[in-house]
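Recap from last week: sequence in, structure out.
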Amino acid sequence: MAKNPLLKPKASRVIGQSKPFMTVFGSDEMAKVLAEFAPRIAENLSKAVVHGIASEITKKAKSKVPTGRTGNLKKAIKTKRRRGKPGQPISDVIITQGRSAKNDGFYWRFVEYGTQMGSKERPFIRPAKDAVFGQLGTIVNQQFKKKLIAAVNREKKRRAPK
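Predicted structure tokens:
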């Protein structure tokens, strides 16, 4: 994958995994457009774009995950926003696990990486991440346009005379 100088990756993580996972922050051109908006709207727009990219990874992972009888692992893959520093929104791709989880996907790492006892690895998160990062420029543009149009339409509707 060729490095795009406009994209600034920031480390994040998948819940239940200690290795860094990538979250993308906007580009300089995006920052110019955002500076024209009110700061609150600009912040919300950047959060929405980052969350949209994480959602794309979630969609790809759900399409690649091997499903059994219940489909619990597929249902357990979610996208979740996390608090970050001001101006640096973070969204994670998580797999819900534990007793309190509706769909317990604790065994995702055994599927993703395999086991020593002979279960072969059947990766679904890594290929999804690689597929999205391979098309990152296009996905960022699509998400930004989609979220910007929605924000402009909301603002028009809010300011319209009643």
